[in-house]
Specification:
With about 120 residues, this protein is of the alpha+beta class. It has helices at about 25-35, 50, 85-90, and strands spanning about 1-10, 40-45, 55, 60-65, 70-80, 100-105.
């Protein structure tokens, strides 16, 4: 089965008054559904880019995201699907698609996973 990355995009600058009630719970349910369906390989949520990103370009290190954009990658997941159409159906169910963001689906070229547990 092929593996695909789902890059989950959200608005770059969202304050508490703009947040959608139940948004995180909707994402949690979506990822739980993917686990039950046996298609989720891995998933990671990222902390807000504006507050935590540090970028490197050549010898220059700057605070903030690499690109100033209206949307940023808020998280990513790796899924398994028989083909791109099936991967798109899985991604279409992601709440980001109706919460003002979106999902980009890309086939994986390769992967390397260590046996070290992830830390937060």
């Amino acid at each position: 089965m092929a593996q695909y990355a789902m890059l989950i995009y959200a608005k770059a600058h969202v304050d508490e008054t703009e947040s959608i009630p139940g948004a995180r719970e909707a994402h949690d349910r979506h990822f739980e559904d993917m686990v039950k369906a046996g298609v989720l390989v891995a998933a990671f949520a990222l902390r807000p880019a504006a507050d935590t990103a540090t970028s490197i370009r050549g010898d220059v290190v700057t605070d903030g995201p690499f690109v100033d954009a209206k949307e940023v990658v808020a998280g990513f997941g790796i899924i398994e699907a028989p083909d791109l159409d099936a991967a798109l159906e899985i991604a279409r169910a992601n709440p980001a698609t109706w919460q003002g963001g979106g999902v980009e689906v890309r086939p994986l070229e390769g992967a390397f996973i260590t046996d070290r547990p992830a830390t937060a």
